[in-house]
Design brief:
The complex is a heterodimer of chains A (about 650) and B (about 350). Chain A contains 19 helices and four strands. By secondary structure, chain A is mainly alpha-helical. Chain A folds into two domains: about 40 residues, no CATH class; about 550 residues, Cytochrome c oxidase-like, subunit I domain (Cytochrome C Oxidase, Chain A, Up-down Bundle). In chain B, a hairpin with a 2-residue loop joins strand 1 and strand 2. Chain B folds into three domains: about 80 residues, no CATH class; about 110 residues, Immunoglobulin-like (Sandwich), CATH 2.60.40; about 90 residues, Immunoglobulin-like (Sandwich). The chains are: A mainly alpha (about 650), B alpha+beta (about 350).
Chain lengths: ~650, ~350
């Protein structure tokens, strides 16, 4: 079955029909549920919202939806690879490359980043004693742009084919000549649109953290999650423009026949340099916020302050700075010469030093503490050995001659999953279990949480540990199959089994969300974990203005100090009064919609759509600059208790 | 996962794979370059195990010792802010460990960038990577082949790598590690093969739909065998063909020669469109996918795209009848280079 979509022939194969059907069924199911529970109006309220925690929760929801899609891609790949010369459904050759590319692109740009940004959105204002981000309107824009980019990349599968050149999308493979069709245009446009959103988020958090800290919260009194967010924002600010430029070059080469990246006239290595000048800091953009979460979680559940706070902060900055100095270690085999390889090997190894400092500081935070094995803490503890394994293989990869063997083999696949799942994803789960009661007013079930943790972590090691061995046995990365005589069958089968175990862990997590929403105790109070920082001084979930009165901070871990030295109350920095909060607006949704239309125009070469979309964006920008969103005044309920959080428990 | 589980798991994994690590390609080098690479892999693994063991030991001890006990009364531990001495220790020691690793890294990086000089005699091979096959040109002998790279043992082998299309990467784990093949650039990779034998190689950089099947072999042979192979490539003798093979040869001329070269007809013409077939019969697999048997060859001729995605070869299903295919297959199966030891 074939049909034409803007002059592009789209073949309806069985997999596409199944995908279409599942999209349809899910759409109908959501519509029915919304109607049945009469939730259309509140959905509309959410879509218009610019409030930090609402935007954060939308980030988390969308991030987990993409997580399921990326996970499905992973399972498809693992089934295809389970046996030598396997032919699973249609997923060989180009289709496998589509899966592999969407898996990587989705997991990095539309899962790891938005989940972290979601947690930042939710927790940063609470932790620094602010009522919202500096630019709530911009924040909503960021979310809708990310969502538009994510939808573009994900919808490609059913509308003309997904990108095929890997998440790194190297030229010349990603050029029109070797990858015709809309697939790789989805990649350039999707990442460009969501990239704008990420850049805006970074500016937003920078300004928020610099300007909106509560009185008395000096930089050196900030919890480490805001600190890591600050450093991450700086990294995004400098790294993403490189990606923007690279994507523009690729887009122009593909759409308008320029030759920036083509061989003969241009130079394909330009792409690799620009991509990795962005791509390596991106790794730290993914892992630093997780470091921040771990610091807070480990400190809370060891009932101790973070060991070596200032060296933790300095390490964050050093890692961020060195992160820009190492991009060539992704290109050791390109042939840039021994001098450049040697320099970048040393700079890469040096990152291990600040990272090591952090690891030992976490270990010594645990030491002498009272370790409480809550689910959030389990994820943080599981992180330490897992991430260290990923870290030491990272140093092994930095050893240039050794990298001539490891590079682009399954050893690398093992390495970066240990770092990204072991760091970022475990960090995200720790953060979710930790801040969930604050977000929704009830805890996630601890028993199910522990099942989730153990199934996911053991499944993870079963999946990815064998990959190091596959690499040593000569299995290259991004292959859709291998031969029986390669001796890789057993390892790959083990890995596939592990992948299904991780999937089971994810199912337990989803079940936990549903189960806890129905059965969990409703009144967790302000401080369910006996916490240390400002977010545990306000009601769960907090009122729209978070703090009825902005607190006055007198040291690190202000709540812990208050509990130790005074009656547990934190002094307020202002009298009770009316609070100005921004109004909600639908413009960010419209603007991201207009950009999506324009993107489709570029992907399918439809000039009308391009003009309509771009004009729409321009008009909305003009409209925004002539008209303020306005604000509303809220009067918090008078509180005899004088506690800064407003209502009594 | 608890460290002890991790350890048990690793041991289990080793047992499960049914072979000792010394048999894994990267850990079992048969070429000078791969030996250098292995020595660094071992050094880095050793140093990193020290780090890993230290962290996991501290982790386990602290976890066991400071875990909250049921009914524990003192739940407010002392809030120590840090310890300068300790923090300096775990800054300095990693720097020392990394220095130990960085020095040989830099030395060997430069060493591998130079051509080896220890062995007598140098063989230069120009390797041109194509979507999805490897072309091997010997400028010193004026011969070109594909899929199986022949090199003599204990000589300096210099590979000059480039690509005809997308970026590929030439990887022979047991001999030389890898280097990228990039159009418009020439990268060098050199090694001294230490032991005769057949070694697996593959493309390590995603290059398109059939990346998985872009494989090759390196045949390391004694100097005498190598010389006789070169001789066989230069002066092929195909006089004693059967009548079917002769008909096949004519069919090959009409149907295949526009892309594929063989020694007998025009070894001097390097078409660089499709693999050279001079030693087709001695290859293990057709296009690196199907085992090399007449039945599979017929399947391949009928529908190459179904067997290797995005392959440039057209289908001959309707272009040749069954007898013609049989003759052509017989001819292809007779393509051997004289003096090429099995």
């Amino acid at each position: 079955m074939t049909f034409t979509f803007f002059d592009t022939k789209i073949k309806m194969m069985s997999d596409i029909i199944v995908a279409d059907l599942s999209i349809l069924i899910m759409g109908i199911a959501v519509a029915i549920l919304l109607t049945y529970y009469k939730k259309w109006r509140s959905l509309w309220k959410w879509l218009k919202s610019t409030h930090h925690s609402k935007v954060g929760i939308m980030y988390l929801t969308a991030g987990f939806a993409f997580f399921l899609r990326g996970g499905l891609d992973a399972l498809i790949m693992r089934v295809q690879l389970a046996l030598p010369q396997n032919e699973f459904w249609v997923f060989q050759g180009d289709k496998y490359n589509q899966m592999m590319t969407t898996h990587g692109t989705t997991m990095i740009f539309f899962v790891a980043m938005p989940l972290l940004i979601g947690l930042m959105n939710v927790a940063i204002p609470w932790q620094i004693g602010a009522r919202d981000l500096a630019f709530p309107y911009l924040n909503a824009m960021s979310f809708w742009l990310f969502l538009a980019g994510g939808i573009l990349v994900n919808i490609s599968f059913v509308l003309g084919g997904s990108p095929t050149a890997g998440w790194t999308s190297y030229a010349p493979l990603a050029l029109e000549k070797f990858a015709p069709g809309p697939g790789n245009d989805y990649y350039t446009l999707g990442l460009q649109v969501s990239g704008i959103g990420t850049l805006l988020t970074a500016i937003n958090f920078l300004v928020t953290i610099i300007n909106k800290r509560a009185p008395g919260m000096t930089f050196m009194r900030m919890p480490l999650f805001p600190w890591s967010t600050l450093v991450t924002s700086i990294l995004i600010l400098f790294a993403f423009p490189a990606l923007t430029v690279a994507l523009l070059l690729l887009m122009f080469d593909r759409l308008y026949g320029t030759n920036f990246l083509a061989a003969d006239a241009g130079n394909s290595l330009i792409w690799q340099h620009l991509f990795w000048i962005f791509g390596h800091p991106e790794v730290y953009i993914l892992v630093l916020p997780a470091f921040g979460i771990f610091s807070d979680v480990i400190s809370t559940f060891s009932r101790k302050r973070v060991f070596g706070y200032s060296s933790m902060v300095i390490s964050l900055m050093l890692i961020g700075f060195l992160g820009f100095m190492v991009w060539v270690h992704h290109m050791f085999t390109v042939g840039l010469g021994p001098t450049s390889n040697a320099i970048f090997a040393i700079s890469t190894m040096s990152i291990a030093v600040p990272t090591g400092i952090k690891i030992f500081n976490w270990l010594f935070t645990i030491r002498g503490g009272v370790i409480q094995m809550r689910t959030a803490m389990l994820f943080a503890l599981g992180f330490i050995p897992t991430f260290v394994i990923g870290g030491v293989t990272g140093v092994m990869l930095a050893t240039v001659p050794a990298d001539y063997q490891f590079h682009d083999s399954y050893f690398v696949v093992g390495h970066f999953h240990y770092v990204i799942i072991g760091g970022t994803i475990l960090g995200i789960f720790a953060g979710i279990y930790y801040w969930w009661p604050k977000m929704f007013g009830f805890k996630l079930n601890e028993v199910l949480g522990k099942w989730h943790f153990w199934t996911f972590l053991i499944g993870f090691h079963i999946t990815f540990f064998p990959m190091h061995i596959m690499g040593l046995k000569g299995m290259p990365r991004r292959v859709y199959t291998y031969l029986p005589e390669d001796g890789l069958a057993g390892l790959n089968m083990v890995s596939t089994i592990g992948a299904f175990m991780m999937a089971a862990g994810m199912m337990i997590f989803l079940w936990n969300l549903y189960y806890s929403a129905r059965h969990s105790e409703r009144s967790v109070g302000k401080d369910p974990w006996d916490g240390r920082t400002l977010e545990w001084t306000i009601p769960s979930p907090p009122p729209e203005y978070n703090f009825a009165r902005i607190p006055k901070v007198r040291g690190i871990d202000p709540l812990w100090q208050a509990k130790t030295y005074t009656n547990g109350e934190i002094e307020a920095a202002e009298p009770l009064g009316e609070i100005e909060m921004p109004l909600s607006t639908v413009k960010p949704v419209l603007m991201s919609g207009a950009l999506t239309i324009a993107s489709f125009g570029f992907i399918f070469h439809v000039l009308v759509f391009q003009i309509v979309g771009i004009t729409g964006v321009a008009l909305l920008l003009v409209a925004r600059s002539f008209q303020d969103t306005g604000s509303q005044s809220i009067k918090p309920p008078y509180d005899e208790d004088e506690s800064i959080g407003g209502e009594k428990e | 996962m608890k460290p002890i589980h991790l350890l048990m798991w690793s041991v289990f994994m080793l047992l499960l794979t049914g072979c000792s690590p010394s048999k894994w390609d990267v850990l079992n080098p048969k070429g000078s370059t791969a030996e250098t690479q292995l020595s660094l892999i071992q050094l880095s693994m050793l140093l990193m195990s020290i780090v890993l063991v230290t962290v996991i030991t501290l982790f386990t001890v602290f976890l066991v010792k400071y875990r909250e006990q049921p009914g524990q009364t003192n739940r407010n531990p002392s809030q120590e802010a840090g310890n300068k001495k300790l923090e300096i220790i775990w800054t300095i020691i990693p720097i020392l460990i990394l220095t130990l690793l960085a020095i040989p890294t830099v030395q060997d990086t430069y060493k591998l960038a130079d051509e080896p000089k220890e062995a007598e005699g140098t063989i230069t091979v120009k390797v041109i990577a194509h979507q999805y096959w490897w072309e091997f040109e010997y400028p010193d002998f004026g011969i070109t082949t594909a899929e199986i790279l022949h090199v003599p043992v204990d000589k300096n082998v210099v590979i000059e790598l480039t690509s005809a299309d997308t970026i590929h990467s030439f990887w022979v784990p047991q001999l030389a590690g890898k280097q990228d093949a990039i159009r418009d650039r020439t990268n060098k990779l050199s090694f001294i093969p230490r032991e005769t034998g057949m070694y697996r190689g593959s493309c390590a950089e995603l290059c398109g739909a059939a990346h998985a099947y872009m494989r090759f072999h390196v045949k390391v042979e004694s100097e005498a065998d190598f010389d006789s192979w070169v001789e066989g490539m230069k002066n092929p003798d195909r006089s004693n063909l059967t009548s079917s093979e002769k008909r096949g040869k004519a069919l090959f001329k009409d149907n295949c020669l526009s892309c594929h070269a063989t020694n007998t007809m025009d070894s001097e013409i390097n078409r660089a469109v499709a693999p050279h077939l001079g030693d087709f019969a001695s290859r293990e697999r057709i296009a690196n996918v199907l085992p090399n048997t007449p039945e599979h060859l017929k399947k391949w001729l009928d529908n190459p795209e179904a067997i290797k995605p995005d392959v440039a070869m057209p289908s001959f299903k309707d272009k040749l009848n069954n007898e013609e295919k049989e003759d052509l297959i017989n001819f292809l199966m007779s393509l051997e280079v004289e003096g090429d030891e099995k």
